[in-house]
């Protein structure tokens, strides 16, 4: 049973605490660090922490703490990770791991040198819908995965530091694209090397230096394509959707809006609806159990089980590093308007995977293009002659 130090008492720190204290009922947050005394004290009271502090190192070094949860702005992840290494405390870090792959790589190398458990808290590959979809993909229900698309768009983040390029490290590509990239990468196969990225990005609405809207394509060595669509300018709440297309099937996931729970209210008694909901009157799309539906419960269960068994969780700092490297390529591509290579100095997946041949054998002389059942009862085959390359039709009945 890990005893946790929570670093940060803001938005995600509280979601994490709700999940950690809510599910197994045997895990505890024993210390909390926050910049301001009042926030630390309030968090400690709300989540029954014995100890609070305004000194980050004090929370990490606290003798009872054996697992540290980093819920701080992006520019503080590395500082916190290095302190965990110094005190040899297991560490889990929210997304994105680093502001770029250089930072992420330093963190990866530091935790591995220190020999501590490291978890990358990518909750969206732990949602119940993702887990079911991923199991179907693994079982071959979709055949060979050709395309995996993930979209996260909302009206923009909730704290000032996100909007500051130095502290955040990027705009919506880094903030939201990190989720989308890891979702697509998981469907395509985490052992398949991402090779190059093409990305459009712009600042269409907000008065900021970073991008507030972007679309990107990530090409994988086996020929599969990942796609991310991210925005801080979308109106209407938080849109979280994934699509997977394979040679044998398709999956569509709607994670947040239109999930089956729809409600109308004039506003009487209106309250919190769901993350980034823009209204609490009219037609609403609340979440049934936000902490569970966003994957936090399954994520912490995996991390804590790994901690107790001395194993690695499903998502480690290595995954965070790969995601950062893909996003670095996206930023380069948005500038150069070219396909940019993904620079991965550390690659632990398969190497030299070639693109699968698109030719399906029909008989000795033909490849199969398509079968079609017509509305007038005839079954047609579209075939390609192997020698001439000519496309022909064959009617079966
Ligand atoms: N689904 C997710 O996985 C998810 C969702 C939201 C945020 N995040 C990530 O969580 C991290 C924190 O984001 P948040 O939404 O909780 O932000 P937040 O602003 O709500 O909270 C940040 C916390 O860090 C503290 N803080 C801010 N600036 C600081 C500084 N200079 N020094 C020390 N402490 C400081 C704040 O007081 C607060 O306690 C970010 O890395 C963000 O990307 C992840």
UniProtKB/TrEMBL annotation:
Domain GFO/IDH/MocA-like oxidoreductase, by residue range, is 130-251
Q: GO molecular function, one example?
A: oxidoreductase activity
Looking up SUPFAM superfamilies in the UniProt record yields: Glyceraldehyde-3-phosphate dehydrogenase-like, C-terminal domain, NAD(P)-binding Rossmann-fold domains
Q: Which GO terms describe its biological process?
A: NADPH regeneration
Q: Name one GO cellular component term.
A: cytoplasm
A Pfam family of the record is GFO_IDH_MocA
> Which InterPro entries does the protein's record reference?
Gfo/Idh/MocA-like_OxRdtase_N, GFO_IDH_MocA-like_dom, NAD(P)-bd_dom_sf
Indicate whether Oxidoreductase appears among the record's keywords: yes
Keyword set includes Transferase: no
Q: Which UniProt keywords apply?
A: Oxidoreductase
Q: Where is the Gfo/Idh/MocA-like oxidoreductase N-terminal domain positioned along the sequence?
A: 3-115
Which protein family is it in? Answer: Belongs to the Gfo/Idh/MocA family.
Q: Which PANTHER family match?
A: BINDING ROSSMANN FOLD OXIDOREDUCTASE, PUTATIVE (AFU_ORTHOLOGUE AFUA_2G10240)-RELATED, NAD(P)-BINDING ROSSMANN-FOLD SUPERFAMILY PROTEIN-RELATED
This chain's protein is named Oxidoreductase
Species source reads Puia dinghuensis
Identify the taxonomic lineage of the organism of origin: Bacteria, Pseudomonadati, Bacteroidota, Chitinophagia, Chitinophagales
């Amino acid at each position: 049973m890990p005893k946790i130090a929570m670093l940060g008492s803001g938005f995600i720190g509280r979601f994490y605490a709700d999940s950690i204290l809510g599910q197994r009922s045997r895990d505890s947050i024993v210390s909390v660090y926050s910049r301001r005394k009042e926030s630390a004290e309030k968090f400690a009271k709300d989540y029954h922490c014995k100890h609070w502090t305004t000194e980050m190192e004090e929370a990490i070094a606290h003798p009872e703490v054996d697992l540290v949860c980093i819920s701080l702005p992006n520019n503080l992840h590395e500082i916190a990770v290095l302190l965990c290494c110094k005190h040899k405390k297991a560490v889990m870090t929210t997304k994105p791991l680093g502001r770029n792959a250089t930072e992420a790589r330093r963190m990866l190398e530091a935790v591995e040198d220190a020999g501590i458990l490291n978890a990358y808290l990518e909750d969206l590959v732990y949602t119940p819908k993702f887990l079911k979809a991923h199991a179907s993909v693994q079982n071959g229900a979709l055949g060979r995965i050709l395309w995996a698309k993930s979209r996260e768009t909302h009206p923009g983040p909730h704290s000032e530091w996100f909007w500051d390029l130095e502290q955040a490290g990027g705009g919506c590509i880094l903030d939201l694209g990190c989720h989308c990239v890891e979702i697509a990468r998981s469907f395509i196969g985490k052992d398949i090397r991402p090779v190059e990225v093409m990305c459009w990005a712009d600042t269409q609405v907000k008065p900021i230096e970073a991008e507030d809207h972007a679309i990107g394509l990530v090409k994988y060595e086996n020929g599969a394509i990942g796609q991310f669509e991210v925005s801080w300018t979308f109106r209407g709440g938080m849109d979280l959707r994934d699509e997977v297309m394979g040679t044998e099937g398709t999956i569509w996931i709607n994670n947040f809006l239109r999930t089956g729970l729809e409600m109308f209210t004039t506003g009487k008694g209106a309250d919190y609806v769901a993350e980034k909901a823009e209204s609490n009157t009219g037609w609403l799309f609340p979440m049934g159990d936000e902490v569970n539906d966003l994957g936090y419960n399954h994520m912490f269960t995996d991390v804590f089980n790994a901690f107790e068994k001395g194993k690695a969780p499903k998502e480690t700092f290595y995954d965070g590093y790969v995601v950062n490297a893909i996003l670095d390529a996206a930023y380069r591509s948005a500038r150069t308007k070219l396909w940019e290579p993904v620079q991965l100095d550390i690659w632990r997946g398969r190497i030299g995977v070639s693109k699968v041949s698109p030719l399906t054998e029909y008989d000795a002389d033909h490849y199969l293009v398509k079968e079609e059942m017509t509305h007038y009862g005839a079954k047609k085959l579209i075939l390609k002659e192997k020698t001439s390359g000519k496309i022909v039709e064959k009617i079966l009945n």
